[in-house]
Amino acid sequence: MAPLASGKQFEIGSGDQHAVIVEVGGGIREYTHRNRPVLDPYPPDAMADGAHGAPLIPWPNRIGHGQYRFGDTDYQLALTEPEKNNAIHGLLLWRPWEVADHRADEVTVGAHIHPMQGYPFHLEVTVRYALSADGLTVTTTATNTGDTTAPYGCGQHPYLSPGTGHIDDAHLQLDAATRIVTDPERQLPTGTEPVDGTPYDFRRPRPVGDLAIDYPFTDLARDDQGRARVRLQGTDGATAELWVDHTYPIIELFTGDTLVPDRRRRGLGVEPMTCPPDAFRTGDRLRHLEPGDTATTTWGARLSG
């Protein structure tokens, strides 16, 4: 029997919650509560389309031309989005991850980035997925195990589920004041604009409709815990919610319009990001990890209603 396209399946559960983390890419393939999807799943024998559930390390989103300068050196990455002449979503999407710890309600997977063309640095990365009464909590930790400073950004690519059907009839809320505007050809930043008075103002819940979205949002409203939230309420009255801690200043929303027809708009991509697209070139909120330094980021999801 051939191995599954997503590799080994690592299941965790807590009460009525169930999640599956996969070997290929180290992402979360499904997360349900009371058998209702919180995160939009994909089949175990399929490749993760649209980076479904995957960690995006050591950069989220895109690097134009795959080129950047760090310190006094110019680097060229492989163009993993060749049709747009970009390097996209980091270096770990298709790498096998290993289990570091696996218990009934949590699993930690890890991968090592060895020096390679375009990124000659060492990073030790772990992602811990844990279920509790508060839902799913995902903690990503990256440590520079090399002897030179490394550029670093982090993101992840879960899709909130409307429960059944498409996201068009779901109500979306994201209290973000600013949209990062990107060019339509290559989706690299060209500036910012306030969401006020635009189709992208979801500070109060309203239907997604047929609006196509693939933009980062920032200036996030936060609660007294420093968390910002995205809520997607389905027609069943239940709300799939994703939160990010203070280490994530940006959330990308993606309505999935570029996926294959039977997968389009089945879930809403909600991507926590520590830096905006093209940060390796612009330096905008890019982390410089000194030798021995560790960066930790946390997001989570849950079902309410």
From TrEMBL:
Return the protein name.
Answer: Aldose 1-epimerase
Q: What InterPro entries does the entry give? A: Aldose_1/G6P_1-epimerase, Gal_mutarotase_sf_dom, GH-type_carb-bd, YihR-like
Specify the enzyme's EC class, one word.
isomerase
Top-level taxon of the source organism: Bacteria
- Extract the GO molecular function terms from the UniProt entry: aldose 1-epimerase activity; carbohydrate binding
Q: Give the signal sequence positions.
A: none
Q: Which keywords fit this entry according to its UniProt record?
A: Isomerase
GO biological process annotation, one example: galactose catabolic process via UDP-galactose, Leloir pathway
